[in-house]
Amino acid sequence: MMELNSLRQFLVVARLEHLSRAADELRLAQPSLSRTIARLESELGTPLFDRGGRLRLNESGRIFRDHVERALGELDAGRRAVAEAGGEGVGVVRLASETFLTLSGPLAAYKRAHPAVEIALHWSPPEDMARRLRAQEVDLCVASQPIPAEGLESVALFEEPVGVGTPLGHPLAGRTSVTVDELADEPFVTAREGHWLRRLLERLFAARGLTPRIVCETDEHSAIADLISAGLGIGLAPAIARLSATQAPVAWIPVDSPDCRRTVTLHWGAQNHLPAAARLMRTVISGWDWGADSTA
Prior knowledge:
It comes from Streptomyces justiciae. By secondary structure, the protein is α/β, with parallel strands linked by helices.
């Protein structure tokens, strides 16, 4: 009989594909975790991982992982639904995004209207969002780049051009537009790997057989404009960033490429039972006047 703890431990190993790191995250002894995985494989009658060198989830493991995620997600959703039906608590909504600066306006409005609701924010890379929604680890996701749509529903929030920011004294600062080829030798300040801004930069350059010269990458996305203004380099910036009252003084130049844009989209699981708190947040975010927002 499979135990819930064993299934949860399997999901961690499947995600990390590394026994010692999984054991550290779970705060278990590695031999104990190895025995748990071995028992699952014995019960299923097939290996779940390839062990030739590095641990890798095999096809059977991927199939089992998908079913386990859905099963545990449904169990958690059932608990939340029972609590909601019984009137226990005031509700929790779990929102994942690549950045929360863009969402500060609707989040503040939601909290003012529903002060007793607990909002749990989770940073998530886009490649992990679909899995987390299908597993019901989160209720809603906001992505600035495409994510797999199977099993999801979505609504586009807004689309905007992404330009390049330069220091005010930069030779490009007076231009009305600039091509990607003209940016090839420029030093770039950008976000860490996986962030939509970094991925867009890499896609634009790769399409032309180029590699961006990155001189600074930061987790503090709000600091990018300050670093550009200080003369450390140039960097991509969404149009909405220019509306920020606290924006550092930089020149913003449109990029002459139809691909230099982002579409911000709200996603949720097509089969998920959204709690009332999450349904309310979906309404607030999807109905927000993004043109009047002043966040970046």
